[in-house]
Structures are given as structure tokens and as C-alpha cells.
Amino acid sequence: MSDGPFTKKSAGALVGVAMVSLLAAALLGIFGDVLSEPASFGADVYSRSAIGHRAFAELLKALGFPLVISRHRTAEKMNGDAVLIVAEPKLEHGSGTHRGFFDAMTRFSSRLLVVLPKRAGAPDPAHPHWVGATELLPVSEPQQVVDALELEGKVIRSTHSSPWRGVLPTPSLSDPQLLEDSDLEPLLATEDGVLVGASTSNGTYLIVLADPDLIASHGLGTGNNSLIAVRMLERLGAGGSAEIPVVLDETLHGYSVEPSIFRELFRFPLSLATFQALVAAALLSWAALVRFGRPVRAPAALGPGKAFLVENTADLLLYGRHLNHAVSAYLRAAKETVAHRLRLPGDRADTLERWVARMAAARGKGQALAALNLLAEEQPNEGRGSEQSAVRTAQAIYQFREEMTDGADRDSRRHRAAAG
Description:
By secondary structure, the chain is of the alpha/beta class. It contains 14 helices and twelve strands.
């Protein structure tokens, strides 16, 4: 029998499940924000909606561009060759945090593609990751980005079509968003304004895309739009045989992830040292659990008292399959007890069996005694139900003995007094 509510195997399983659960919780706390992709329906790379940039990122990966999605300190990741894409940034008014990050990116990047914002969306109630409805942002939102770049030009939205001119293919856009009176070199423009313009200043080659519908999922696959998107990056030096990384910033969309020392410990090559330390800690814990506290004293070889002897004898009889002998011996002991307590002056020549049978008949227990003799003779030593049968027979013998000796001491004293 176990001293606790669980067996050793069940307790081990519970401890294992608890340790796995604790480890999973720790890993989710460390890596949860980077392993799980943010759910989005807006104008960012995680959005699969019509105004999202997911299709644009997948296109670049399929064409072999070494794309890196940045969620922390994008400006510090830039070097002399990397191309930075800042698509539809959300800048706070005044000197907000996002504005400071944007200024740092434009200052440290030598190859930069900036896509002006245009639309905002609301989620579809039936599909939260889809956009249910869109609306045009105020012109002040994209204008704020132009002003942050310190460029000349006014953001307008054209409602009539005019011929496209420039070095890039003709786009497929309705009511395009353009830059009017811009100082950018027009790469693709109409009479109303510039759609794609370039600028070189202080060692930075900048390309501005005024209308994000060209790279958004709903417009990327239309006409030459995807070709224009690739040609813009090629003009910045990415693609082809050059292994220039393309960094797509997502910090300005609110997906910034703070660095974690614990996350770094589980990344190669520090993960090797971390694994070695965890193994050493596990072995130390195992050794401590085996010998924790003072050694437990060994149990005594023989327990004190009659109970131990009775239990040990019962176990030996059960192990040796001597149930028949045990029941017969118990019945004989019961008869001897009856004879000892009921033996009155009289004929001493009767044997134990005849005397007990005569006394049982006199007390109306003759049939019960005969049944007990038969049960003791037929008691099986093994097989299904043999142990339960032996217990029931022993209980019947005990009941017979108690009924036969009930009042025996009182009768003996009365007979002795009459004889005296």
C-alpha cells in the first residue's frame, strides 16, 4: 500500500508534466513576442489584408532579396550597403518617439525607400485579420512624412488621369496620390505631380513612393505595379548578383520588441553554454533530491507486538497456499476453547469431537457444527475466491465459538458451587 495519494509512477508523471509546463511558460515569456506573428489588418508587413504589405514582402523573398524585418533599433542595423524600406510610417505629432526613430533612420541610412501613408482600415467582424472597410487618411498624415524628410512638395490626390512619363513602367492606379511642386527627381510622374521621385543628399540616396497602393496587396498584382516596386529597389542597389540586405522597418507600426538577455542566452552560440549550465543544474538537483537531509533509518527487521507476528504468519500461510490447514486448525482451536470453557463434571471418556458435537446438539448448533466441519474439509488452497472463502469460514467458526461459550463462565461457577 502507498502512504501517499499517488503511486510512485503517477507522482513521477505529475512532476514531469509540471516541469514541462513550467519550461513552456518560461520559453513563452522569453520568446513569445518574437515567435508569435502579430495579428494585423492594417498597412504593415504582418497584414494579409488588401492594404497590407505581406504580399510585397513575399514577392521580395521569392525573388531572392535578402529581406530582414526589423522590430528593434532599425537605425543601428544599417551599414553602408543595406537598403532600408520605411513603408507608410506612423509618425507622432511634434517630437514624439516615432518621429525620433524616423529621423535616426533617415540620418544613418545611405539607401532609403520611403512609402507615404494613404489609407486606414477597420477589421472585418467575421474575419478579424481582414480589412472590412478602408478610408483615406487626411492629407496631413503623408505630408508630415514629407516634412520630416525635409523635402519640398505638397501631397495631393489626383482625380483625373493624364499620361505617365519617366524611366519606370506605367503603373495601374486610380486616383493616385502624388507630390506636387516637389524638388525630387521624377522617376515616374504626371502633369499633376510625382509618383516616384529620387534625391541624393549628404551621401543618402532616397526614393519616395507617394502612393502605397502600388505595393499594397490589392494593387501589387495589377499591371506593372510589382515590376515598378522591384525596379525601385534595383535602383537603390538591391537585387541581382549583389547580396545587399533589404531591411523592412516595422517599429514605426508599433511592433517594436525590446532586447532580452534571456532571449540572447538561448541563441547560438550562447545557447551552447546555456544548455551546459542547465544540464549541470539538473544533475545537481538530482543529486540533492537523492540525499536531502539526514539519512532515513532502516526499518526494524522484526516489528514489536502480537499484531506483527499474526500478520507475518498470515502472510506465510497465504504465500505457502495452506488455507485448508489454516481453516482446519482454527476450527480445532475453536472446539478446544468450547471444551475448555464448557467442560462440566461428567464422563471424561468422550473424545473432543464427540463431546463438542453432543454439546452443540444440546444447544441447537449441531447442524452449524456439521456445516463447519464440511467447509473446513473442502476449503481450497488456491484458485479464484479461495482467500475470500477462507475468511468467510473463519468468521463462521468465530461466531459458532462465541455462541457456544456465551454464559459458559456463569454456568461453570454454578455447577462448582452445587458440587461443593
